[in-house]
What does this fold into?
Amino acid sequence: QLVESGGGSVQAGGSLRLSCASSGSIYDTMCMGWVRQAPGEDREGVAVVHSGGIASYADSVKDRFTISKDNAKNTLYLQMNSLEPEDTAMYFCAADVCNSATEALVSLRYFAYWGQGTQVTVS
It folds into this structure.
C-alpha cells in the first residue's frame, strides 16, 4: 500500500525528490514519514508529517529536507537538497497512527506500514 520512487545517485550538494504513493485510507488518517537505513546502521527516522499537516525532522536533515503531501494524489514527498555522502541509505516510506509529529519522529522506525524502499547514493 506504500510505493516509493525517486531514488538514485547524485553528487554531493545535489538534490533528489522521493515520492510515496499510498491508499486513501492511510494517507488521510495516519502519520506518514521517511526512514533511512545505511548498511550496518540502525534505521533512522528522517521526517514525518501528521495527518493534520504538522511536520517534524531529524536534526541531521533539518533545513535541507522538506516533507510534503499532495492530497489530490495521495502522495508523500521528501525533497532532499544539499545532499551529503552521509545521506546515502535506503529510504523507506512508513505510516501508522500517531498522536503528534514530534512523537512520531521517535517511533517512526517501528511504524506498522512500510514500502519496499528506494536507494539514495550521494558521492
